[in-house]
Design goal:
Elements (H helix, E strand, L loop, with lengths): L4 H12 L5 H7 L5 H33 L3 H20 L20 H6 L2 H13 L4 H20 L1 H43 L1
Length: about 200
């Protein structure tokens, strides 16, 4: 699957799912003073950005140490994205744990895993190892994704009131459907590359 700058950005936005995470984000900040919330948003988005950048830059070295191939990572990434997509389409009960937070959230659960979750880490690692010569494009796609996430979280209250619960659920399931197709494409690409390598 050839990945352009635009498709990489869209993929990362779908995976980080800022719109779908608004209810959990609002719940996580319930006990934070209103004047502190903007600072918390900036801090958590910055931490998530640094975490994902780290995976992007040191992903190739990690694969070499673990003796993992590009094909195995593509298949694993496809499986992870597929599972994430299924959760977006068929959300289960008790999947949100923000109500257990006491005080101001720090790193967990907003930065990790809400924004920089396993699927996002696997995706940036996959992009950087498959085409390292396009690193500037991947950094740009990640930066744009984090800016979108930042804006969505800054205006989360207004967006939630404007769209309502039903519209947000419908949007999340639509994004899950798109992500399902992307995950299947990634999985098939990994399997095809492995078969070609054997042949």
């Amino acid at each position: 699957m050839n990945t352009s700058f635009l498709s990489a950005t869209v993929l990362l936005i779908l995976i980080t799912d800022p719109l779908g995470n608004i209810p959990l984000f609002i719940s996580a900040l319930k006990k934070v003073k209103p004047e502190r919330r903007r600072k918390v948003v900036y801090r958590e988005c910055l931490i998530a950005y640094i975490v994902l950048l780290t995976f992007m830059f040191f992903g190739k070295g990690f694969l070499e140490v673990m003796h993992l191939t590009d094909e195995s990572l593509r298949v694993a990434g496809g499986v992870i994205l597929f599972l994430i997509a299924l959760k977006m389409i068929f959300p289960g009960e008790g999947s949100h744990s923000a109500n257990q937070i006491t005080g101001e959230p720090f790193i967990v659960p907003i930065a990790v895993p809400l924004i920089a979750g396993p699927s996002a880490m696997a995706t940036v690692l996959l992009m950087s190892t498959r085409e390292p010569e396009r690193m500037l494009e991947w950094i740009g796609a990640l930066t744009l994704t984090m800016l979108v996430t930042l804006l969505v979280f800054l205006f989360s209250g207004k967006i939630h009131r404007l769209l309502g619960e039903q519209a947000m659920t419908a949007m999340e399931r639509l994004m899950g459907l798109i992500l399902t197709a992307i995950s299947i494409e990634m999985l098939l690409g990994g399997v095809a590359a492995y078969i070609k390598k054997l042949a």
